[in-house]
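Researcher: Can you fold this with zinc ion in place?
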Amino acid sequence: MGNKFEQIPQEPVEEKEEKKVTRRDFLKTMGKIAVGGAIIASGLDKGVEALAEQEKKDPKIEQIKEDWTEFKQVVKESKVRDNIKFLEQTYGSIADGMVFQLKNNLQLFDQLVNEEKNGVDLTNEKNKDLLKASIEEYHTYWDQGFFDETVRKAENKEGLSAKIEGFERIEGMDNEKVQELLEDNFNKRWLYGNTSSFEYVDELKSRKTFDVAGEAHTEGLVGIFYKSGKEKIKIYKNEGMKDEERLLEIMSHEIGHHQDWENSNRLPLQDRLQFLREVTERLGSSDRFHSSYVEIDIPCEYSDYSPQEIKYIQAIEYWAVMVENYDRHGEDLKKNKLEDYELVDKWRGKAIKKP
Ligand SMILES: [Zn+2]
């Protein structure tokens, strides 16, 4: 049920292991990402805005030292290097979109850590710019506080809501009723935190292998900093549409897509890798929840894709199927597949936490 797979824009990562990063290289790389890298367009604009804001503030040396210590702690605790390796081994070049930015940031980070080990004072006039650049990267991509702050500001300004339209075309249903149904059954931040509209489309949509009940339209890694207004859930004409429970299952599944490792606007990048790794590991374990949609329909539908691409789509759909079961059949899932239940509980918890 439902589907969502966008090809992640792929930019070959330039190998610069031997060369030292200079301030000029750093700016050049940022420019390159802005034109065609893994995180592009509006998402990065926000990041650059934030960088500019921070640069303007010109932080005090004590603040720089504190942030640097924090960055080192986060890198150490996040298992990020191990996760990059794991995801590259599992998904090959499909992982590029997920790991590109982090690998890039780690290059400068590692250089500075090495210099520090060799007794270089990173905070003196000669080195301060690079240290500040690294800390800016930390705040933009790694710092939970930055993601929370962005969401907190947006919630204060816009509240938590979404457009709900077209449902009057289902017999016995209307938009107000759907809104009530959704708000009665889902946490508001889960429901609206990264979804701007729920729309009913009164036509059948069929694929090779299955009918599409719902679709998650998201911006993937481009939209990770904020809710842009373009995150849509579309529901298509479907058997059993008039059944409230069926509608809630479909909604739950699609909301799950909006809250995954690519689309969530609550998670720093290193957490997204950990999230994808945990879902991938569940998908590879024999005691996992079996869904014929994930196990049979997806490989069949995407039979001309590479095994790694199919596996990635399976991971995306496995997560959404787990969310659906957690929301609608939570007691059964907890009793029969505790690990899957806890996986959803953990990452859902981060998405609905008050920013
Ligand atoms: Zn789906």
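Model: Folded with zinc ion in place. Residues 23-154 form one domain.
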